Amino acid sequence: MGRYVARRLLQMIPVFIGTTLLIFLMVNVLPGDPVAALWGDKPPDPAQVAQIKHDRGLDLPLWQQYFHYMGGLLQGDFGHTIAGNRPILDEIKQAFPVSLRLAVMAWTFELVVGITLGVLAGIRRGRVLDNAVTLFTLLVISVPIFVFGLFFQLIFGNQLGWVTPTVQDSENIGELLLPALVLGLVGLAYVARLTRTSIAENRQADYMRTAVAKGLPRKRIVTRHLLRNSLIPVVTYLGTDIGALMGGAVITEGIFNVTGVGNLLYRALGQREGAVIVGVVTVLVLVYLLASLIVDLLYAVLDPRIRYA
Amino acid sequence: MRGAKSAKWVAIAGVVALTATACGGSDSGDNSNRKVDPKGIVSYANGEPQNALQPSNTMEAYGSVVIDSLFTGLVHYDKKGDITYENAESVTPDKDSKVWTVKLKPGWKFHNGEAVTAKSYVDAWNWAADPANGQQNSAWYRDIQGYDAVHPAKGKAEKKAMSGLKVVDENTFTISLKSGIPYYAYKLVYAPFYPLPSAALKDPKKYGEAPVGNGPYKFQKWDHKKLISVRAWDGYKGANKPKNAGVDFKAYNKDTAAYADLKSDNVDSMPIVPNSEIANFKQDFGDRAIDMDFSALNTVNFAFYTKQWKDIDPKVLQGLSMAIDRDTIAKTVFHGTRESATGWVAKGVKGYQDDACGEYCKFDAKKAKQSIKDGGGVPGNKISIQYNADQPHKDWVVAVCNSITNATGVKCVGDPVTDFAADTEIRDQKKVKSMYRSGWVLDYPFNGNFLADLYGTGVDGNKGGFSDKKFDELTKKADAAKTIDDSAKLYQQAEKELVNTFPGIPLWYNKTLSAYSKNVKKVEFDQAGDPILTEVEVFEK
C-alpha cells in the first residue's frame, strides 16, 4: 500500500512537468501580444512595450522563460501578472478558496442527493419514482447549464427576491447555495443515473439473494451489501468531478458573479496572461492528480478484493 | 403514462417562467415625491481595474471611471464641446499656439492636505513620461518639447525632465510644444494631465493602491475584485460638488450579472446594457432607461496595402459605401439603438458637420452598382470584413455583407478572428486580407481627433495604410490655425476631402444605452460615455 502510494506520487512529477510545458507552449502559440493588448485599440507605445517586456522577462527565448518560470514555481513564486504587475500567487490565493467552497458544496449536493435518488430509483426499478428520476435527470442533462443558471437567477433573484440575483460576497456560504445548486445539477443527474444502473444490476446478484435468504434486515442489505458494491463507478465519477467543478465553473461563476478560478482563467485567457493560466492550471492539475489517487485508494476500501502491492 | 404525467408538470413550470418574465419590469414612476438623502451612496457596476490606480497608467474604462472621480484636471468640456476651466483659472496660448501658460486657481488642496501647485503638475508629468516608471499613457506628453530626450523610442533616456515644462511661480507654469497646436487645451482634459501629490512620486506602488487626488471624491478602500469605495470630500473647491455622499464601484465579471442586479435595484447604474438585453431594456426600465448620444463612430476600413485596394479607383469604394442600407440594419440588428453615420467625425464634438459624406453614405443600390462599374469593379469581385468574434459583431457584418451583395453582386463574407487581441495584432502587422471593422471613441471632443489621428500618413492610429498628400496638407494647415474655431473649420475641409479618397466607410454613431435603479435619480452620461457621478441623487430608504 505504502509503496503504491509512493509510486503514484512519483508518477505525478512527469505528468506535472508535461502538463505545464504543454500549456506554456499552447498559450504562447495563441495570436495576440499581451503587452500590446494593454493599450486596447489605441496604438501601443514602443518604448513602454519594450520596457514592460524586459521587466517581465518576456523578451527572452521561450525555453528560458519556461525554465525561469519553473524555477520560480519550485520556490513557490508564481510570477507577476503583465497587467498591473500583481503577484499571481495572490490572485490564486484569492480565487481558489472561493471555487473550492463552491465546488465542495456542489459536490456534496451531487453526492447526497444524487446517490439517494439513484438508490431509490434502482431499488424500485420500473415504478413511479424510477420513472420520475429518469425523466428529471434527462431534463437536467439535456438542458444547458446556463439556462438553469439564468432561470434560477430570474425566479429566485429578480422575481421572488429570496436572494440577491448575484453573489455579493463570494466568501458567504449562504449566498453560494444557489450557484452551487446550479453547478451541481448536471453532476447530480449523472451520479443518480450511475447509481441507479449499478444498484439495479447488483440487485440480481447471487450475494444479494444470499443476504435476503439469511434474513438480514432490509436496511443492512441495502447499505452494506448493495450500496457498497455498487459505488465503484460512482466514486470514479465523483473523484474526477471535483476537479472539473473547480476549473469548469466559468459559466456559473459568470452568471452569479462569483470571483473564482473559472473567472480568473477566463479573464487570463482573454488578456493572454500566460503565467496566470499556467499557474492556475498547475494547481488544478494537482487537484486532479490527488483526487484520482484518493479514488483509487477508495476502491480497496469498497471492494477488498482490489489490492495494491 | 406515469412518465407523461411528469412531463406535463415540467411543461407547466416552463409556462410559469415565461409569464414571470413577461410581467417583470416597467413599473417606474411614483419617484417624484420621494425625498433625497444627501448622505446616500451610489453604487455603480464596474469591474476590476487593469492596473494600479495611477492617472497616467489608466486607460481602460474600469480604472478610468474611478480615477476621474478622484481627480479634477485643469480643464474639461461642456456638452457643446467647449472648454471649461476646472483647477485652472486660465490656459492661454501665445500667438502661434506653441507656448501655453497655465494659471491655477489658488487654494486648492489634495485630499491629504498638500497644496495643489504648478509643481504638482510639472513633476507628475515628468515622472510619468519616464519609461522607467512604466506608465502606459506617457505618449500623451509627446507634443511637449524635450519629450524625446526623456522618452526615446529606443535606448536609454538622456534626461529626467522635459525642457518644455517650466514652473513660473507657485500657481503658474508654461508648456512649450514642439509645434503649435491650437486645440491643445482639449488634450489637457485627459487623465495623464492630472496633478499628483509629492508622496505619489516617492512611493508610487503604495500610492497606486490608495490614490490621493484633488477631485470631488476621496479614496476610501479597494477590496480587490469586489469593491472600490470613494466618499465625497469636504475640502473640494470645484464647481461639481457631489450631490451624494460617495460612490461604490462594484466589480462584476459580466455585464449580464450586473444587469440582473440592476433590475433588482442591487446596483444603481451600469456603463452600458449587455447586448442580449438591448431589445428589451427600455421595456424593463421604462423612463429609467438611458439612451444618449455618445461620441463614437463605427466604420469598415480598407487595408490599402493589399493588392486588392492598392491602386483602386475611389469610385469603387464610394460604390461599396452606397450599397449599405444603414438605416435598415440599425433598425433590425441594433433595434434602433444606433444612428446612421453621415461623415467621419462623431456627433457631439467640436467641428462636427452634418452630411460630410453626402450621397456616398446614403443607400442607393442603382448608383452603387454603377459607381463600382465606372471604377473598374472590385478586384476579384469578392471582399471580406475582418472582425473579432468575442464581441457581437457577426450579425451586423453579415447584414452589411448581404446588403452589398444584393445591391451590387460583389461577393462579401465575414472574416472572424477569435478575439480582440488577435484582431489588433493582425491589423498592426498589416495582414488584413481585404477590409476590417473599426471604431473610434473620442479622446477629446475635437474633429481633428477623428481625422488626423486616424487617416494622417503614418500616424499610429492609421492601421489601413491610408495616405493622401492633399489630406495631410489640409490637416497641417488646420494645426497651424490661430484659434480653435479656425482649426475646426480647416479640419472640416479635410473631412470633405476624404469623400474623394474614401479611406473607410462610415456606418453608425454609437449611443450610450444604460439604465438606473429605483434608488436614485438623474443619472447621465457625457459624450465620452462616462457617467457623471457627482450629479446623481439618492433617495431616502
TrEMBL record, chain A:
Any GO CC annotation of this UniProt entry: plasma membrane
Location within or outside the cell: Cell membrane
Xref: PROSITE patterns: ABC_TM1 (PS50928)
SUPFAM superfamilies named in the record: MetI-like
Transmembrane segments: 12-30, 104-123, 135-156, 176-194, 234-256, 276-302
Domain ABC transmembrane type-1 stretches: 96-299
Membrane topology: Multi-pass membrane protein
Pfam families named among the record's database cross-references: BPD_transp_1, BPD_transp_1_N
Entry annotated with the keyword Cell membrane: yes
One of the GO biological process terms: transmembrane transport
Keywords on record: Cell membrane, Membrane, Transmembrane, Transmembrane helix, Transport
Similarity-based family: Belongs to the binding-protein-dependent transport system permease family.
Protein name in UniProt: ABC transporter permease
Automatic annotation (TrEMBL), chain B:
GO BP of this protein: peptide transport
PROSITE patterns found in the cross-reference section: PROKAR_LIPOPROTEIN
Gene3D superfamilies on file: Dipeptide-binding Protein, Domain 1, Dipeptide-binding Protein, Domain 3, Periplasmic binding protein-like II
Pfam families assigned to the protein according to its UniProt record, in alphabetical order: SBP_bac_5 (PF00496)
Keywords linked to the UniProt accession: Signal
Record-level GO cellular component terms: ATP-binding cassette (ABC) transporter complex; periplasmic space
Domain Solute-binding protein family: 87-459
InterPro entries to which the protein is assigned, alphabetical: Peptide/Ni-bd (IPR030678), SBP_5 (IPR039424), SBP_5_dom (IPR000914)
Name by which UniProt lists this protein: ABC transporter substrate-binding protein
UniProt organism field: Streptomyces kanamyceticus
High-level lineage: Bacteria, Bacillati, Actinomycetota, Actinomycetes, Kitasatosporales
